[in-house]
Design goal:
It is a single chain. Helix content is 35%, strand content 23%. Strand 7 and strand 8 form a beta hairpin. It folds into two domains: 111 residues, Response regulator (Rossmann fold); 96 residues, Arc Repressor Mutant, subunit A, CATH 1.10.10. It is an alpha/beta fold. The strands form three sheets. It has a five-stranded parallel β-sheet with strand order 2-1-3-4-5, with helices on both faces. It has a four-stranded antiparallel β-sheet with strand order 6-7-8-9, covered by helices on one side.
């Protein structure tokens, strides 16, 4: 799965855009022309990184970066400023600030640490990303560390995304036991998972209870 970058850039860029280069490097890059457009897209796109080319917006980027950070504070933000512009990270809440001019290689090097691995240790299902090694789930900009048991339960559900996983099967695989006489502890773990991935755990969008059967992860 390609890493997703949301790129905010106006039409008055003083230098050639870096976007074509990043796409050639196999990043998925979606461009938007304004900060408000970026805010509107973050929820659906759930980018790994947001780049704000403030130099192209004739802005210092402070308001845009702070607005993004307030809404989705786990998403890294790279702010690009003009050559004579100085602004601190504390003012903008940006993760990295780059001042023009700089090379595409420098930009790629600064982007790389914020892009999650796409190998066997990272599972993807819709907006959910589960890092099995770090036992961390990310969904719609929220990043939460999980216990080993919760990681295992979510892994099973993601492996069967869109399918109903019966309670007994889920309990058997997650607890590695043949005894399935009392699965109430599973319900507690499901509620904890909902707190980790759902915007409103009482009205789950992703992790659904299928009455008398089990659970289904609707992640697409």
């Amino acid at each position: 799965m390609k890493a997703r970058i949301l790129w905010v850039e106006g039409k008055r860029a003083a230098s050639p855009s870096f976007v074509p280069t990043l796409r050639k490097k196999d990043y998925f890059v979606e461009t938007v022309p304004t900060g408000s457009a970026a805010l509107a897209r973050t929820g659906e796109l759930d980018p790994d990184l947001i780049v704000v080319n403030a130099a192209s917006l004739r802005s210092n980027g402070k308001r845009i970066c702070r607005s993004i950070h307030e809404r989705m504070n786990s998403i890294p933000i790279i702010l690009i400023t003009g050559p004579d512009e100085y602004i601190s990270k504390e003012e903008t809440l940006a993760t990295v600030i780059l001042s023009l001019p700089f090379t595409s290689r420098k930009l790629i090097n600064r982007i790389a640490p914020f892009i999650p691995g796409a190998g066997e240790e990272t599972l993807h299902a819709g907006p959910l990303r589960l890092d099995l090694e770090r036992k961390q789930v990310r969904c719609q900009g929220k990043e939460v560390r999980l216990t080993p048991r919760l990681t295992r339960i979510l892994q099973i559900l993601m492996d069967h995304a869109g399918e109903v996983v019966e309670r007994e099967q889920l309990f058997r695989e997650a607890w590695k036991t043949e005894y399935t006489g009392d699965t109430r502890t599973l319900d507690v773990h499901i509620s904890w998972l909902r707190q980790a991935i759902e915007e409103d755990p009482r009205h789950p969008r992703f992790l659904k209870t299928i009455r008398r059967l089990g659970y289904r992860l609707d992640a697409e």
